[in-house]
Amino acid sequence: MRNHPLVSDLSPVVTESWQRSRAFDVNPLQETGTVRFRQQDLTDLQLRNQDLIEISIPLMMRIYNLVRGSGFVVTLCDKQGVLLKVIGDDAPMRKAAQIEFVEGADWSERSVGTNAIGTCLVIKKPLQIFAAEHYSKACQWWTCSASPIRNPSGEIVGVLNMSGPFEAVHTHTLGMIVSAVTAIENLWMLEEKNRANALMQRYLESAIDTLPEGVLVLSKDNRVIHVNREFLQLTNLNEVQILGQTLSNLLQAQELSLLLATGLEIVDREVAFTVPNLGHEWRVLFSMKPIFDETGARMGSLITLRDMAKVRQFVNHMTARHPKVTFGDILGESRTFLECLRDARIAAGCDSTVLLTGESGTGKDLLAQAIHADSTRQHQPFIAINCGAIPRELLGSELFGYAEGAFTGAKKGGHAGKFELADGGTLFLDEVGEMSLEMQVHLLRVLQNQEVVRIGGDKVTPVDVRIIAATNENLMKAVECGQFRQDLFYRLNVIPIIVPSLRERRDDIPRMAQVFVRQLSQRLNRPGTRQVRFISDDFMHFLMNWDWPGNVRELQNVLERAILRATGDTLRPEYLPPEMLKDGVSIPRGTTIDLKEQVKRRVLLESIEACHGNYKAAARRLGISRSTLYRQLERYGLKS
């Protein structure tokens, strides 16, 4: 091998390494290694390997203290074979420096041929290279013992090596290095776990701090060891006042000691606490989750406290608890609709069950809200549920709730149904005709007994709920066909209210159109266009003569589409849907009329008709003088 003396008893590992060294064209007569990293580059390299260095240095110092004065140096290399740290006595350190066995030098096989550091990186195993087994002359007076270091992922990231005079080598030298590497890897694994635990702790604390409920972590003896921001805000306490305290010292409640003593999981138990800083009772949903170690021994508990006021706010928001619609918000002055409103006001004055019947889009839901808002239950929940929009197999659990374990995936602690949520208030059952016969039986039982049993449970819960039902079907006909229970029909149909279709109340269209146009124009607020304020006569003619199968909802839809298509401040027929124009009715083009003027004219007419032509009574009805009435009649061409 290029004049290099062959050793007859070389091991296969060393022989193969020599062959690689020759293939790398390493000079066997070279007397030094190669320094590849100096000053700033070396510092950068050490920073990149900071974890390896910090964990290894204490073990390197321990080995050095054991071999101090024996001529050995202890080195740490990166995964490329570059020396990161060298520790030793002055004399061997000077000798090492003579052959560039220093920090920043490359001692891979490719650089200096066979040596413990470079060869161990190739074979990925511990080994010892003795004197003349080294390929290059530079280190043939050394005996080197090295072992690869693996990180917690199992990846080789470096080498621990000990080099010294070949005559001072001991059979246990390699074993010492292997033991040290094992210790390094174990320490690294422990460090990684500690970092992961610390990171997880930070994540958990951050997650807990973002929760909308108060959270406390208790020790085994029920002392607070962590608290989140929400709890501090809810109780007006600070961490100094809380940490280390027992929960019973912070929050006083009769049943608290019993709840803690059970050591069992508790979900959403309503508890009334006394908190000194608040000065009033604090009602919460109390939950406790015991925490166990790997042996099953209890380590502590996780407590969550959900403020009942916030829970109610959330439920109100999700279920539209307080309706915004009152009778004053409902548009309509036609005779048929006024009769409907009269019946609805009567219904608002009592607690009897109401059945609203009318086509889709007529505003049955608005009428139901108005009845509730004008009733004695107006400050209690208004809960709406569309019986036709929920799958039949789920409707029961939505209406009546379910107990814990009622079915696979059932929520721990169960789930309150709409009847429980509406307790004290009104439950609006929309599309009640879509309910299955089986569900009708359950509904009838609840209405008769005024109590509910959750699905899968046996606890009877009294409920005080006023029912308003709505349908777009002929329920009497459904009864005759066997599709709706007669007894339930009569239970619902105590106050029947027929909600007229829009084609049955055409006189209301101009006023409704005016209001809808104003509301929609403000909401749409199209940039760069004039706000729509007027409706042309011919556009109104089409509105008045359309059948409106979709009723008020369709009218709103048509007006919104027209506003979006309009290029000016006036709605014209060309903005209407094609199906409304298909008959091609010829309409004389009149002047554009401000919607307010149209409405005033119609109000005058209706007032005079209602007073049977008596102008004095009509003026009194309108709240104006007779002279003002005469002027307005003349203005609108109605004096005759």
TrEMBL record:
Single annotated GO MF: sequence-specific DNA binding
InterPro entries: AAA+_ATPase, AAA_lid_NorR, GAF, GAF-like_dom_sf, Homeodomain-like_sf, HTH_Fis, P-loop_NTPase, PAS
Domain Sigma-54 factor interaction: 330-564
Key words of the record: ATP-binding, DNA-binding, Nucleotide-binding, Transcription, Transcription regulation
Any Pfam family the entry gives: Sigma54_activat
Xref: CDD domains: AAA, PAS
GO biological process: regulation of DNA-templated transcription
SUPFAM superfamilies: GAF domain-like, Homeodomain-like, P-loop containing nucleoside triphosphate hydrolases, PYP-like sensor domain (PAS domain)
Segments forming domain PAS: 200-270
Protein name: Sigma-54-dependent Fis family transcriptional regulator
Species this protein is from: Alicyclobacillus ferrooxydans
